[in-house]
Amino acid sequence: MTFDYAPAPESRASVEIASDYGLFIDGEFSPSASGSSFVTVNPATEESLSSVAEAGSADVDRAVAAARRAYDAVWGPMPGRERAKYLFRIARIIQERSRELAVLESLDNGKPIKESRDVDLPLVAAHFFYHAGWADKLEHAGYGPAPQPLGVAAQVIPWNFPLLMLAWKVAPALACGNTVVVKPAETTPLTALAFADICRQADLPPGVVNILTGAGETGRLLVEHPDVNKVAFTGSTEVGRSIMRTLAGTDKRLTLELGGKAANIVFDDAPIDEAIEGIVNGIFFNQGHVCCAGSRLLVQESVAEDVLERLKARLSTLRLGDPLDKNTDIGAINSAEQLARIDELAKSGQGEGAERWSAPCEIPERGWWFPPTVFTGVTQAHRIAREEIFGPVLSVLTFRTPDEAVQKANNTPYGLSAGIWTEKGSRILWMAQQLRAGVVWANTFNRFDPTSPFGGYKESGFGREGGLHGLGAYLKTEAAR
User: Which residues form the catalytic set?
Assistant: First the structure.
């Protein structure tokens, strides 16, 4: 039996988007020194949402100077118990404004409202609550008796989880006593600017959090600034390599969370219905705009036909359309540039001989969209099995033995995540030890918690965010001083 869903749009009334936004420096919004700006666009409709200031060299200097003053005079010397109060306050305000922030995220990013509402925003608040609890207990975190903050942190945020990735970086930095200068992605700046307003609402001391909007040049100027002590970047491996070259020979600390090409491995004894949901969540959540997406499905040969049949049936029920509709499963691709990248790689899959199947769905006339797509007949030589697509495209490979599954899963330059589906606990533990991935999920996928560290190996970057390991990225110990 199939069901028809009546439209259930979330109201935009909870959100007021200004016609233009300035830079947030030293507790105040101000225009860029050059007067330059850019327009942020709703990817589902292509409508212009707002004009946003573009930071240049003088603005970066001003923001870093404000962060340094706040670190030296206020935030660095402040007792941890006092910093915790601000973080708790920010967390509570995020909860109070969660509906507004979820709608704003979906408008600016294109992701379904049920994901921004039910996944992103609860995790954003959870990260601030969790790190608030650590602010006065850092001496018990395993980094020595008197760990100290690093100073000023430059944090570059991606466009796929704009507010959540901001929380992953800002919360531990502030808890450890650092001040920050944040550069959100140019296609998704609005929730970062809303966070600036939250900082003022929480009476956070001026200069502790500064937000510079702009494109890649703004990020480069920030990363290269001589008065920055720590750089945290989430984004492409290509840009990550460039940052490493820039910081080589300096004393700046660096963490990188880069691309991925995760294997989601289904054995013949797996609970197939649950695995199907895990496969869907693994690659089609957030339109596949997930670094740790399970974009390579490895299925044991004996159940491959059954899994594919059930997977296609499940994908045929997904609803693509208006991100603000509560029934929507697949939202808009974030930008025309990203859509072109997805389309180019999908065509390469067909050109190299893989069989393409896309879920039947109606594509809206405006906006940027790509249907949930599955490729079969894929080999490890195909581009779609090697390169990160960052879209709703799944490549399916098969295996016969656990050893072959491990070999195929590890045959990638990336090492961010993996998933294992089997009823055997011993197999899960053995596989987890063999897989070269920073995060390994067992009988689930894309589950996150602020207490658990996240990060990768190889071309997926280094360093961890979240948990005790994430605190260490923002602390210097006695041995390092």
Answer: 257, 291
Sign of the CA dihedral running 282, 284, 289, 294 = positive
Tell me whether strands 414-415 and 230-234 are parallel, antiparallel or unpaired. Answer: unpaired
Domains and CATH numbers, the chain: 20-258+460-480 (3.40.605.10), 263-449 (3.40.309.10)
Q: Which residue has the tokens 């050109």?
A: 351
Locate 459 and state its tokens: 């071309």
Distance CA 105, CA 43 (A): 11
Count Cα neighbours of 131 within 13 Å in the Cβ-side half-sphere. Answer: 34
What gap in Å lies between CA 150 and CA 144, rounded to an integer?
A: 15
Q: Tell me, what DSSP letter sits at residue 73?
A: I
Residue 332: strand, helix, or coil: coil
Distances (CA, A) of 89 to 25, 129, 208: 20, 9, 15
Distances (CA, A) of 326 to 125, 335, 455: 21, 22, 31
Q: Mean pLDDT across the stretch 126-139?
A: 98
Mean pLDDT of 355-380: 97
Residue 200 has pLDDT above 70, yes or no: yes
pTM of the model: 0.96
CB 336 within 8 A of CB 368: yes
Query: Residues 85, 448, 15, CA angle at the centre, nearest 5°?
Result: 65
Taking the C-alpha atoms of residue 180 and residue 192, their distance in angstroms, rounded to an integer, is 13
Q: Give, for 476, the enclosing helix (H) or strand (E).
A: strand 475-476
Using CA atoms, how far residue 423 sits from 267, 436, 446, 473, in Å, is 9, 21, 19, 36
pLDDT at residue 481 above 80?
A: no
